[in-house]
Amino acid sequence: MVAVDQAIAVAVIGAKGRMGSAVVKAVQAAPDLRLADALDVGDPLSSLPADAVQVAVDFTVPSAAEDNVHQLIDLGVNAVVGTSGWDGPALERVRRHLAEAREVGVVIAPNFALGAVLAMHFAAQAAPFFESAEVIELHHPDKLDAPSGTARHTAAAVAAARAAAGLGAAPDATDPDRSEPGARGAAIDGVHVHSVRLRGLVAHEEILLGNPGEYLTIRHDSLDRVSFMPGVLLAVRQVSTRPGLTVGLEPLLNLS
Ligand code: NAP
Q1: Does ligand 1 come within 6 angstroms of the Cβ of 143?
Q2: Mean pLDDT confidence for 214-238
Q3: Is 110 in the pocket of ligand 1 (CB under 6 A)?
Q4: Nearest to 81 by CA among 103, 96, 51, 60
Q5: 201-211 confidence digits (pLDDT tens)
Q6: Which CATH superfamily is domain 114-223 in?
Q7: Distance between CA atoms of 40 and 34, rounded to whole angstroms?
Q8: Smallest CA separation from ligand 1 atom 35, residue
């Protein structure tokens, strides 16, 4: 049993949301963690008892998360961020800010489900062996952003693996004059990503890899938000030992 004063003090931001409330329960159930604060919309981060919080977990909305992270860096509080919507320039702004705050760690992961991280990893490993690659992500219809952060991350990893292997663009004869706009989805680093929003779904992803006469599907399904909690808690336990910015759970799992 970990003594209360040795437990990692955790604040949850977005604590009333679907993910945030699951994180609150997971922190309360972990013997080595202690819930120090639970904030939601309307609670300013300046009200956070920064000297009594070691790690803040952010599951809010894309429009708030970046500002929250910069405020946490200023407060000297390590951050674990699951909120989606991050792009390259936003990550770069966090990286630059962290260069001035050498003790603080930030982990931003597009997906905390271990199976989803492995699916992305396997997709990048397989990508050099296939002519074609596309990604389909499927989520509940209350999700604000599209495509999902996971799909962006997956497509970028697949594109990087293809480029490193010297593969050019995937074959695609689509004629824009004969197509509805958007029918081919979004192109992330040249890899097409399709977003489905359907009541009943939670979070799902398929990576399709094709060659003449065969195709490989790598699929991951999160059936319950509890699937994200082992990854969130892993990041909470490790973030203070990783100053600077860590993107994705892969380094924490020794996958990269
Ligand atoms: P949600 O149920 O809408 O929860 C978001 C919560 O944050 C709500 O309670 C919201 O309040 C609150 N909030 C909004 N702005 C805030 C602010 N400035 N400060 C504090 N709290 C604020 O959404 P969710 O399903 O939990 O998802 C949250 C985020 O996590 C989304 O971006 C989603 O894509 C992402 N996500 C990531 C993973 C992963 O593994 N990385 C997994 C699942 C979801 P109101 O409702 O009053 O606005």
Answers
A1: yes
A2: 97
A3: yes
A4: 60
A5: 999 999 999 99
A6: Dihydrodipicolinate Reductase; domain 2 (3.30.360.10)
A7: 18
A8: 83
